[in-house]
Amino acid sequence: MKITKDEVVHTAELARLDLDENSINRFAEQIGDILEYVDTLNSVDTEGVIPTSHAIFLSNAFREDKVKESIGANKALANAPENKDGNFIVPKVIT
């Protein structure tokens, strides 16, 4: 499957990329090669292969939730450079 230069230009415009003619030709060739390689995967016999979302089997690694005592505001703020009235004081980032 080949990709045209017009498709590369259109995609570059959508991504707001400024490509020169040399880059457009190079990308069209490289993307075309990639699409041709991916197209070869259609010839692979997948009969009897169960579709999966991952290459390996995964199991949930979450631990069981356990209710614990909170550490409390004083401990949470103990290493804060600045705090006031039980809150962290941070620099203003929005002007």
Element pattern in H and E: HHHEE
Largest sheet, if any?
A: 2 strands, antiparallel
CATH architecture type of the domain at 5-43: Orthogonal Bundle
What count of helical segments does DSSP give? 3
Ranges with pLDDT <50 over ≥5 residues? Answer: none
Query: What is the third-level CATH name, the topology of the domain at 5-43?
Result: Histone, subunit A
User: How are the strands ordered across the major sheet?
Assistant: 1-2
Global outline: flat
From the N-terminal CA to the C-terminal CA, the straight-line distance is 51 Å
> What's the CATH first level of the domain at 5-43?
Mainly Alpha
- The proportion of residues in beta strands is under 5%
What number is the mean pLDDT? 90
Structural class: mainly alpha
Write down the oligomeric state.
single chain
Cα radius of gyration in angstroms: 27 Å
* Share of residues in helices: 25-40%
Report the strand count. Answer: 2
Explain what you see:
With 95 residues, the chain is mainly α. The chain has a domain at 5-43: Histone, subunit A (Orthogonal Bundle). The chain is 36% helix and 4% strand. It has 3 helices and 2 strands, in the order αααββ. It has helices at 5-14, 21-39, 73-77; strands at 83-84, 87-88. It has a two-stranded antiparallel sheet. The longest helix has 19 residues, at 21-39. The two termini are 51 Å apart.
